[in-house]
Design a protein that fits this description.
Length: about 1400
């Protein structure tokens, strides 16, 4: 640094004169000398600099390429970072080998594979690699010699979307949507890369500091000059006080509108101050705004003065303080304009100049012309324009639009595939004749070209719903042909379509369109023979409707869909035409409409939430409805929803038909007539004990007093018809606009099982709503405000229940020893009452599970002090009744309870039976409610002395309620995904056929209510907390209900069970899907459709119907493929092309993908496994030794040849799971990427869960192969270890990203809480997704396989469950057990099994000698 040159000292001298006491003149001279002194010091500063990397050498493989050796080098991270294999004539097998190696490579950054023979299989291998590779930045696949399919492109695009490092990708895309998906991902990764290239470094620099040193010297002299003194005193009298030196600024505040400065820093105001040159006459107003947030930027008249000011220096001022200086590089004056002849919509905030503030420069961007950035919806008016559309081989047509849109002439005669589950297979055209058609569209695009084709096919891109400008169809002939087989084929031919001059509306726009005069449409679909009459009737009705002019709205194609059949009791006719969207919605409901109290306000809120441009109005009479319609300017964009028994509803639904279907049924009917609004009418029937199908004797209100439940079901069915989805209990999907794809809809539905369709939300597990449902706030029992803040979540859950046709909810009550003082207080009771009121406000019955003596997992017990000792029955009876009196103060509608003292222990059968009778009879006789008891599937327990008449032996203890009072209902229970006819190697069972037989037995006895009680998740190591994507759950529940319905129909009495209670354990990671679909299955299992797969497609329509029409069938088939693959591999262990296994123990996939915790390992030794068994990693690792497994050998008395078992059964299973789940997950991600925004969160959740399942399969496969190879060869295959850990680390990234999208705060669902934390009512030390956040089960398996430290081979390794707290509940038993645990710990025995109070595992920290 050059030394700083200092200027010479500055010397100033001043004098002051005063008059002394004796008249002398005193002159004081002050001399000030200022000089600069330069010093230098070292200063550390942080600066940002670009990371400069040396270009790597590229390895180019030429002739005699040894692919195997190359792949080995790639997998071992040989060190090269760029590889060029262009033109290497690589085969599919070569690509697969290289791709597999790249899955574990962490050095290669560039790979070129141009000019090779990569086919679909090779592309699939590359796609699978991209989902896990974390270093590759460039990949080129240009000019392949073999053609590839669009399906391969979709998989490839989905993989690129999931990859976070690839930035350059060369490929010849066929599908534009795939190209767009890939390019968006590449741009995202490029931006992240650029950001990562900046680094902050500390540099030491020498800083010169200039100090000013001022020396002041004062001299005083005294004189006798009276004349001078008198003159100076005179000046003071004339001018007042002495004037000190000052300066003023000539800066002028500029009005600034010609610049329209906006601050990107979100400051409250930005003023522009100039040092001259810009006067107030340069503009008439200015805006102080935040960029992108202003709703009103003023347009100026534009004085030219501002244009001359380029280059002036400006100062940005905030809050009166100067912030920085900037130079305006360009100043643009924008005059207010009005579009006269323009094809663009003009908005009120368009014609302004925008300025962005960057660093010290103001950049002015001209935007005087309206561009695409100005969205149409920001404008309420569209200028009148004149558009000329020239049509080849036709006359020129010129049309002038109204103020509401732009005329496109005859440009939008488009046809497309119909929605609502029917796919049209082909279109063809043989004639083209253009007629004049006026169409009004709300879009800022002019038609430039109209293409007329002599013969053309309608492309998928012009699908139904993309444009509403359709021509009217006139059917000249229509035929139905029936072949001789058991299935029938329907062919509908529309031989002529007449283009009429008609007005239609659209929110879409095209620059080109194809006009069709003659269209032949053929749809082929298989129908079950017992519903053929519905199809024929629908076709006849369609023809009649067209002939009499019933359909007055334009339609190019009319397709008849199979009627919606509800329990063979109702059929709906849907006539599909162009979609309608609405900006005005009028809800018509009388003041006395008998809806549950929360439903109507909620409907209005939902409709209002769709768009800020949607007007929603509630009217309560015909007069108000007429007045509201009078104010509407466009009836074609108006929806009227008529709810309940009013004249509007009766115009479409007659009173005679409303009650035909019985309890809880509903009707939804819609109509659209010319020059009239779109009308949807809803009516329904309340819940009552109609006895139509001879259900058992469940006690329900003779007439439900909390609103017409059937009407509520109908209202939510209508909301689904206009675009809403209610899949997740805490997050309904709200469409951006209210629209319909069908008119003249008629839906009539009733439940197959009328009395009880409910959810058991298992709050013994630390789930999303567990603290709330136990009366806890986030801060604990005293946090009233925090508890109340979560009421909307419970209300959303109740709304989800009614939207999915459920009528009840229950959860277990808890009572913990650390909060015993709160358990039975008035404060807690008041909160329970509030919950009951919320449930009733949606028409939902509310119950709780209150065990009698069951002490597991902090259970609330009706009997806390009794043990069945002789002579104490009356005391026990009083305690049970007193506990029920306290519980029923909340007003619950039904009760649940448990048998025994835990899942595996029980009191004597005589004692248990007496307690059952006391509880059930007291609840029925005093409170008129039914109590249900779980009939568990745990094996190995019998009730001695109580004979099962079917076997003439002691009955299974769980079935003891067969002998209880008829007031006690039964809940035959199955666990995990297993169906009633599946092998089920869990809880000591081979299958659950005996549960099915027990249910049938109770039904035929007709003594008590019977409700099926299966699961949709099994939290604690089996599925949701791994997590695994298991749509298998809802498919198996659907299968169960179809089995049970068939049993009912085949029985002599035709008796039906009372319904289904679903055991639910959380909703994240797509488990909302299992609950929603299983719930809907209890409403309608579609037993009239013989083919179960086709019936399943009907069940999942509420999920797939919101996708693009072209994706709906793909989505349904993909979900079905997931369920079939999981059924084969996870349940049956069935490999492709092989016969089913007779014995699936240790040979089924679920036993390997599930998690294993300490107590699963212990239970395996004790023979009490509550999940499917497997060949364990430690078992395989130490097979043939006594190390740590001698107890298994002694206790189980089983002999396995573990190595042979692995090679024969386990390895092939793991390989096939890896391959198939990888393929399914990539296809799922590709489908999710195309989901509309308002349902994308659902499909992203499914995609993430599916990818976690694939990664788990990959991790497990590699861990087992690693252990096997190390055991048999003595060598550690580090490539396998790295592949396993790569899968884990990739899974961690997915988990971290998904947590930000949980529907409750992530910590509430996924944090470690410690036992007995103030806000934790459960017996667990963590919330239910903590094991997902930490990947606990993944790390535990990795440590077992890859670590040689003895601690990781122990069953107590990474224990997270305190068994005493978990299994023994509260009271003296717990205290005694705690004392025993303390003694064992003091002796150094089994301390890891008990010490989990404050110890949160951290991985890999807690794995000793860990090196990965």
């Amino acid at each position: 640094m050059e030394p700083h040159s200092t200027p010479p000292p500055v010397v100033k001298t001043s004098e002051s004169t005063t008059i002394g006491e004796h008249g002398e003149v005193i002159t004081e001279t002050t001399t000030t000398e200022t000089r600069q002194v330069v010093t230098s010091r070292a200063v550390d500063v942080v600066v940002e600099e670009d990371i400069v990397e040396v270009e790597p050498d590229t390895v180019t493989e030429e002739a005699e390429l040894n692919v195997h050796a190359l792949a080995r080098d790639i997998a071992s991270n040989a060190g090269f970072v760029a590889l060029d294999l262009s033109g290497a004539q690589l085969t599919t097998e070569d690509i697969a080998e290289i791709s597999e190696a790249l899955q574990v490579n962490n050095t290669l950054e560039s790979l070129k594979l141009d000019d090779n023979d990569i086919n679909d299989t090779g592309l699939a291998a590359i796609a699978a690699m991209l989902t896990v590779n974390e270093t590759l930045e460039e990949l080129t696949l240009g000019e392949q010699l073999i053609q590839h399919s669009v399906e391969s492109e979709r998989n490839l695009a989905a993989s690129i979307h999931l990859n976070m490092t690839i930035r350059v990708f060369k490929f010849e895309w066929k599908d534009e949507s795939c190209r767009a998906t890939a390019e968006a991902a590449l741009a995202r990764n490029e931006a992240a890369y650029i950001a990562s290239r900046k680094r902050k470094v500390v540099k030491t620099i020498n800083v010169e500091e200039i100090q000013e040193i001022t020396t002041v010297r004062k001299d005083k002299r005294v004189t006798d000059d009276d004349d001078d003194v008198q003159e100076e005193q005179q000046q003071q009298r004339q001018y007042g006080a002495l004037v000190e030196e000052s300066s003023s600024s000539s800066n002028v505040l500029a009005a600034g509108a010609a610049i329209a400065v906006a601050s990107v820093a979100s400051v409250a105001a930005v003023n522009v101050v100039s040092d001259g040159g810009v006067g107030a006459d340069s503009a008439v107003g200015y805006g102080s705004v935040t960029l992108g947030q202003s709703e009103s930027l003023l347009v100026v008249d534009a004085a030219a003065t501002a244009e001359t000011d380029t280059g002036s220096e400006y100062v940005l001022v905030e809050g009166g303080k100067t912030q920085e200086t900037a130079v305006a590089t360009e100043v643009i004056t924008v005059a207010e304009t009005k579009s006269e002849e323009s094809t663009y919509a003009q908005t009120s905030s368009a014609d302004v100049a925008v300025v962005e503030v960057e660093s010290t420069q103001i950049e002015v961007v001209e935007s005087a012309q309206t561009t695409q950035a100005i969205a149409l919806e920001t404008s309420s008016t569209v200028q009148e324009v004149e558009v000329t559309a020239t049509v080849t081989e036709s006359t020129e047509s010129t049309v002038t639009s109204s103020e509401t849109g732009i005329s496109t002439g005859a440009a939008y005669a488009a046809v497309g595939a119909a929605a609502v589950g029917v796919a049209v297979s082909s279109y063809s055209s043989t004639e083209v004749k253009v007629s004049e058609t006026a169409a009004s569209v709300e879009a800022p695009v002019a038609v430039e070209t109209v293409v007329v084709a002599d013969t053309a096919a309608v492309s998928e891109s012009i699908a139904l719903g993309e444009s509403e400008a359709y021509v009217t169809a006139e059917a000249v002939a229509s035929t139905v042909t029936v072949d001789a087989s058991s299935s029938h084929t329907e062919t509908v031919s529309v031989t002529k379509v007449v283009s009429e001059k008609t007005e239609a509306h659209s929110t879409e726009s095209k620059s080109e369109a194809v006009l069709y005069e003659t269209i032949i449409v053929t749809e082929t679909k298989k129908y079950d023979s017992n519903i053929l009459f519905i199809v024929i009737a629908s076709v006849i009705l369609l023809l009649i409707a067209i002939i009499v002019g019933f359909l007055m709205t334009p339609a190019a194609v009319v397709i008849v869909e199979e009627g919606i059949v509800a329990g063979a009791e109702a059929a709906g006719l849907i006539l599909l035409v162009g979609a309608y969207s609405f900006n005005t919605i009028i809800v018509r409901a009388d003041p006395d409409v008998n809806l549950p109290s929360a439903v109507l306000p909620r409907v209005v809120d939902l409709l209002t939430a769709t768009s800020s441009n949607t007007s929603v109005k509630l009217v309560q009479s015909s007069t108000e409805l007429d007045a509201a319609l009078q104010s509407v300017t466009n009836l074609n964009q108006t929806l009227v929803m008529c709810i309940g028994a009013n004249d509007c509803t009766r115009s479409l639904i007659s009173e005679d038909v409303v009650g035909n279907l019985g309890s809880e049924s509903f009707h939804v009917v819609s109509r659209k007539n010319e020059s009239a609004p779109f009308v949807v009418a809803v009516d329904g029937v309340n819940a009552f004990d109609d006895g139509t199908h001879q259900e058992s004797s469940m006690r329900i209100q003779k007439d439900w007093k909390h609103g017409n439940r059937g009407l509520a079901y109908g209202v939510y069915a209508a909301l689904e018809e206009i675009g809403f989805a209610f899949m997740h209990p805490l997050a309904p999907s709200i469409p951006p606009t209210v629209s319909v794809n069908a008119v003249n809809v008629s839906i009539a539905e009733a439940p197959r099982w009328k009395k009880f369709r409910a959810i058991h939300y298992h709050t013994q597990h630390p789930l999303e709503l567990t603290p709330f449902l136990q009366g806890f706030g986030p801060g604990g029992v005293d946090d009233e405000e925090g508890w109340a803040s979560q009421i909307p979540e419970f209300a959303s859950f109740c709304e989800w229940l009614v939207a999915n046709r459920q009528n009840g909810v229950e959860w277990p009550l808890l009572e913990g020893h650390t909060w015993d003082g709160f358990a039975r207080t008035d404060v807690r009771m008041a909160r329970f009452k509030k919950m009951v009121d919320i449930g009733h406000s949606y028409g939902i019955m509310v119950g709780v599970d209150v065990p009698i003596a069951f002490a597991q997992q902090h259970s609330f017990r009706l009997l806390k002090h009794g043990n069945g000792e002789e002579g104490h029955f009356e005391e026990e009876k009083k305690e049970i009744e007193a506990s029920l009196d306290w519980v029923m103060r909340a007003g619950f509608d039904f009760l649940g309870t448990e048998s025994g003292t835990s899942e595996f222990t029980h009191s004597s059968p005589d004692t248990m039976l007496r307690w059952m009778d006391v509880a059930a009879d007291y609840a029925a006789e005093k409170y008129n409610v039914t109590m249900f008891i779980k009939v568990h599937c745990s094996a190995g327990q019998t009730a001695h002395g109580f004979i099962d008449e079917r076997t003439n032996s002691d009955i299974n203890y769980n079935m003891l309620p067969h002998f209880a009072s008829p007031n006690m209902g039964v809940l035959p229970h199955t666990v995990e995904p297993y169906a009633l006819d599946d092998p089920a190697p869990t809880y000591g069972n081979k299958d659950f056929k005996y549960i099915r037989e027990y249910l049938k037995w109770e039904l035929e006895n007709n003594q008590r209510p019977v409700v099926f009680y299966p699961e949709t998740a099994y939290w604690v190591s089996v599925d949701i907390d791994v997590p695994l994507f298991l749509p298998l759950y809802f498919e198996r529940r659907f299968h169960d209900l179809r089995l049970l319905a068939a049993d009912e129909e085949a029985s002599a009495s035709k008796k039906r069970m009372d319904g289904q209670l679903i055991f639910a354990s959380g909703w994240e990671w797509s488990y909302w899907l299992n609950d929603a679909m299983a719930a809907r299955a209890s409403w309608n299992p579609f037993i009239e459709i013989e083919d179960e797969k086709e019936a399943l497609k009907m069940l999942i329509q509420p999920l797939v119907r919101h996708l693009n029409v072209s994706d709906q069938m793909d989505a349904a088939n993909l979900i079905l493929e997931w369920t079939q693959t999981e059924n084969d591999l996870l349940i049956n262990g069935k490999l492709e092309g092989q016969a089913a296994l007779d014995d699936i123990v240790r040979k089924n996939g679920h036993g390997y993908l599930e998690g294993w915790d300490t107590w699963d390992d212990v239970s395996k030794v004790l023979g009490k496994l509550t999940q499917p068994d497997s060949l364990g990693l430690v078992e395989l690792k130490h097979s043939g030794t006594w190390f740590d497994h001698v107890e298994e050998r002694l206790l189980k008395h089983l002999k396995y040849d573990e190595e042979a078992e692995y090679v024969k059964s386990v390895r092939p299973l793991l390989i096939e799971m890896n391959d198939k789940f990888a393929n399914l997950s990539v296809r799922t991600a590709a489908l999710a990427a195309k989901a509309p925004t308002y349902v994308s969160d659902l499909w992203d959740d499914i995609a993430d869960a599916s990818r976690m399942t694939s990664l788990r399969a990959r991790q497990v496969m590699n861990l087992y192969e690693f252990v096997y190879q190390e055991k048999t060869t003595g060598r550690r295959n580090e490539t396998l270890a790295l592949q396993a850990m790569n899968a884990l680390h990739t899974a961690q990234k997915i988990v971290n990203a998904r947590e930000t999208r949980y529907r409750v705060p992530a910590d509430r669902a996924a944090s470690w809480t410690n036992l007995n934390a103030p806000h934790n009512p459960t017996a667990y030390a963590f919330n239910y997704l903590w094991t997902v956040r930490s990947l606990h089960y993944w790390w535990r398996d990795a440590a077992k396989a890859l670590s040689d430290h003895r601690s990781t081979q122990s069953k107590s390794f990474a224990n997270i469950i305190e068994p005493v707290e978990m299994g023994l509940g509260t009271g003296k038993t717990l205290k005694a057990a705690d004392s025993l645990a303390g003694v064992l710990a003091a002796l150094g025995v089994a301390d890891d099994y008990f010490d989990v109070e404050d110890k949160e595992p951290q991985y890999p920290r807690d794995i000793k000698h860990w090196k990965y």
